[in-house]
Specification:
Layout lengths: L25 E6 L2 E2 L4 E7 L5 E4 L7 E3 L8 E3 L7 E9 L2 E2 L4 E5 L10 E11 L5 E11 L6 E4 L2 E2 L2 E8 L17 E13 L3 E7 L9 E4 L16 H6 L1 E3 L2 E3 L12 E9 L8 H10 L13 E5 L12 E2 L4 E3 L8 E3 H5 L13 E6 L9 E3 L5 E4 L13 H15 L2 E2 L2 E2 L49 E2 L3 E2 L21 E2 L12 E2 L23
Parallel strand pairs: 2-9, 20-21, 20-22, 20-25, 23-24, 25-27
Antiparallel strand pairs: 1-3, 3-6, 4-5, 4-7, 7-8, 7-9, 10-11, 11-15, 12-13, 12-16, 14-15, 16-17, 18-19, 26-27, 28-29, 30-33, 31-32
Helix pairs in contact: 2-4
């Protein structure tokens, strides 16, 4: 279940926050209802403001659990919750909810992982001056406790638990077989006073067992005018009041952009022969809408705004481009070749006022080298070019168009074939068995496997970095990639081989294969100084 409810600013408690419901809370659902000890779950119901979660209702072990700020929308199971069913109700000043729901607790599997920071943003800014401000810093982390603490420079700061993304994925799996099992994601908001603009801080998250995340650096904006609270490359000012350039104002708010929720703007055109299937757009948008990312406002996911000429605020995309035989970035004298930028630099195709805020994608016929597409790594332009493909990888199959679009756009947001493009070792390895991602050539066309085999489950997206690292010099096929599900890695018909096995198809058995956390490594600010954007 996704955290869709937006969390309003944590400033001072006003009289509005003192309004208490005149009736008992109502509990209608708990998700997931089967979970491991210490997982964070979500509740559905009404009258949850200023309510709490009662665990083991009416039993001798009855206790009140830690839940999120000012409500019982999310709560964390006790670390030592016993295996079996536990009755749960909600309670406020008027009593307990009538409905009682059982949570089934599983036996612990392995040790609880340390928290891992996914993203850092700004929930709110108050008392801003030209030199400094008071910030409410928003930290999203995997496996952070409901009472976890944000640390800045190793010092605890006042921290509030805002929202979460509970997960039922591990309910039918064996967490101990994963490298980094993810039970939930948590959004924490901490208070920083008199923080200088343009300063840099080191952030960690500490769980209640004292386990601490690796540190992550965050640099504040140079001023309130340049603040980008959600790190999506679109300044708050633009998303609230429009992006103005060349005397033209682009109304980002009308396009659905929100300064406290990550947004991506993409314009798509195509040649007539390679017109994309009209059914692919909703799935592509859902890939990002369902991303395991918590925004500074407490909501989850990324809003992808695709301009394909569908109307309303989106009328520039969907242009039918002049035909070509092949297309790529750069010039060529090959007959029938068209430079991608010949299309883009024609204002009839792409409005130059959009170049700082929109990605531009073209569905074309083919690249000169015959590949299915190309995307600038940490840039803004990409192409889908497999119209001539046949068989299982044919362009006519919508699933293939979705997978290739997500793959090539993934390059734009700083992902390579084997993980984030800044990783030190196997970031560009292809066909890894333990990287469930549309960036992986193994899954670009057939779609990703999201369980412990290598068979597509018709899902798309990027890896969360959950699977264990594999060393090709010593592989045990009986262990597989998770759940001890034996797999025939070397293709000899057996699953009991132990020893050196080539896992990524590169012809050697010397690689360390890592499942990188791609969602936690994406970058949307393609105009940053360290990107490959060329002001085009």
């Amino acid at each position: 279940m996704k955290a869709k409810k937006k969390f309003k600013y944590l400033c001072y408690l006003s009289t509005a926050l003192l309004i208490i419901s005149c009736s008992k809370p109502v509990l209608t659902d708990i998700e997931p209802s089967t979970a491991y000890p210490r997982q964070i779950l979500s509740t559905d119901g009404s009258n949850q403001f200023l309510s709490s979660v009662v665990w083991d209702n009416n039993l001798s072990s009855e206790t009140t659990l830690k839940s999120n700020f000012l409500s019982s929308r999310y709560f964390q199971l006790p670390d030592v919750a016993s295996t079996g069913n536990h009755p749960v109700v909600l309670k406020n000043g008027h009593g307990k909810s009538v409905n009682e729901i059982n949570v089934s607790v599983l036996s612990p599997s392995g040790t609880w992982p340390a928290p891992r920071i996914e993203d850092i943003g700004i929930n709110n800014v108050i008392n801003a001056t030209s030199s400094d401000a008071n910030f409410y810093i928003a930290v999203s982390a995997a496996n952070a406790d409901a009472d976890a603490v944000i640390q800045v420079g190793g010092v605890d700061i006042t921290t509030i638990f805002v929202s979460a993304i509970p997960s039922d994925f591990l309910e039918n799996h064996i967490p101990a077989t994963y490298g980094y099992p993810i039970y939930h994601y948590t959004l924490l908001v901490g208070i920083l006073e008199n923080q200088a603009w343009n300063s840099t801080i080191q952030v960690t998250v500490k769980n209640h067992d004292a386990a601490t995340s690796p540190s992550k650096q965050y640099k504040f904006a140079t001023s309130l005018a340049t603040l980008d609270s959600d790190n999506d490359g679109l300044l708050d000012e633009w998303e609230k009041n429009g992006y103005t350039v060349g005397g033209t104002t682009i109304d980002l708010k009308a396009m659905g952009c929100d300064p406290k929720r990550k947004d991506v703007l993409v314009e798509v055109d195509w040649i007539s022969a390679a017109a994309p299937d009209g059914t692919i757009w909703a799935t592509i948008e859902d890939v990002f809408e369902e991303a395991p990312i918590l925004n500074p406002d407490g909501s989850s996911g990324i809003s992808m705004h695709l301009d394909r000429g569908q109307g309303g605020a989106f009328t520039n995309g969907g242009t039918i481009l002049t035909n070509h035989t092949t297309m790529d970035f750069g010039s060529s004298t090959t007959p029938g070749y068209v430079d991608f930028y010949t299309y883009k630099n024609n204002s009839a195709n792409f409005d130059p006022n959009r170049k700082d805020i929109f990605h531009y994608g073209i569905f074309g016929r083919a690249r000169p080298n015959g590949s299915s597409g190309r995307g600038e790594v940490f840039g803004n332009d990409f192409m889908v070019t497999f119209f001539n493909f046949t068989g299982a990888n044919a362009f006519s199959i919508p699933r293939n168009q979705i997978g290739t679009f997500v793959h090539e756009f993934g390059h734009n947001i700083n992902l390579c074939h084997g993980g984030a493009c800044v990783t030190p070792t196997d970031w560009n390895e292809t066909f890894k068995v333990n990287q469930p991602s549309s960036m992986n050539y193994r899954y670009q066309f057939p779609a990703v496997s999201d369980d412990c085999d290598l068979t597509s489950d018709n899902v798309f997206g990027f890896s969360r970095g959950m699977l264990a690292t594999l060393n090709e010099t010593n592989v045990n096929e009986a262990n597989g990639i998770c759940d001890n599900n034996a797999l025939d890695f070397n293709g000899n018909g057996a699953t009991n081989n132990v020893g050196a096995i080539n896992l990524n198809g590169d012809g050697n058995t010397t690689d360390i294969s890592i499942d990188y956390n791609e969602w936690g490594a994406i970058r949307l600010d393609f105009t940053a100084t360290d990107s490959s954007w060329n002001n085009n």
